[in-house]
Amino acid sequence: MQAITTIGLDIAKSVFQVHGVDANGQVVLRRQLKRRYVLAFFEKLAPCLVGIEACASSHHWARQLQALGHNVRLMPPAYVKPYVKRQKNDATDAEAICEAVSRANMRFVPAKTSEQQSGLVLHRTRHLFIRQQTSVINAIRAHCAEFGIVAPVGRRGVEELLNVIANAKDEQVPAIARACVAALGAQLHRIKQQILEFDRMITAWHRCCETSRRLDEIPGVGPALATALVASVANPRAFRSGRDFSAWIGLVPKQNSSGGKPKLGSISKQGDRYLRGLFTAGALAVIRYAPRHQAPAMAHRIISTAADHGRSPRTRQQNCQNGMGDDG
Questions:
Q1: Region at 47 (left for phi over 0; alpha for psi -120 to 50; beta for the rest)
Q2: Euclidean distance between the first and final Cα of the chain, in Å?
Q3: pTM beyond 0.85
Q4: What residue spans of 239-290 are helical by DSSP H?
Q5: 175-208 vs 114-145: helix axis angle to the nearest 10?
Q6: DSSP secondary-structure letter at 317?
Q7: Could you give the CA distance from residue 206 to residue 224 in angstroms, rounded to a whole number?
Q8: CB–CB of 232/120 below 8 Å?
Q9: Would the pLDDT of 34 be above 90?
Q10: Residue 144 to residues 118, 156, 175, 183, 283: CA-CA distances in angstroms?
């Protein structure tokens, strides 16, 4: 068998597919591997180029194979899909990965370290608990409303509802419903305590990371956004400019251009939704809560910079004196 120079590895939970080619592009290997045999198989191979789709557990396998001396490159699945021929199966996917990784203009995803993935797990878990908190609060309000008990929006409103439920002398709510809502109140209290603990962990990690502390100096960037950036962006030098980074997050306009006529729409909303939400919240905080003598100048500077990076023939809102675009 000729020497393998490039391998497309289609990873999964249990069964992996390997597609290997030589220096001339000829297929020399097609094989299925059980999970427990993957590392033993690559230990026997000479160092080569290994392509993997950037999906669940891909960064783990990238670190494992890099430790064996292989050159591992991760690619977004959307960039690999055009190379899939006809029907989709594991063998075809592995062949498409092998073809895509050898392209000179392919974009790759830097492999994250264990520390970066730990930070992402922390942020994702906190975000999950926040969604659960919202769900529990909505359930408490809905159940109480069935018995004519309502309260103002906000934290104090939920506390008022729980105080009504805790009052056993109040006969508005039957005993069974009272017990259920009380259980939801206890669950809400535990979730809030856990979110506070996650916030402390994020703050502690932020204080120990120099890059995160430097990012915190930017207006609108706090410990949550700074640590999320450090955990999400393995190699900041992969972006040529701030606009490229904005496009990666999905904060630039969508394009539908043709015939030399640029047509820009709303933001693309591609990329990491969690990061995009943090950036939006941080920008709004700068504009809304900065001192009155600083907010207009700061907002003008931010908008002017964005306009300079991406001007279009159409009059945009930020380019007009009165802040109104063509739509009024």
A1: beta
A2: 69
A3: no
A4: 242-249, 273-289
A5: 160
A6: G
A7: 8
A8: yes
A9: yes
A10: 39, 15, 13, 13, 36
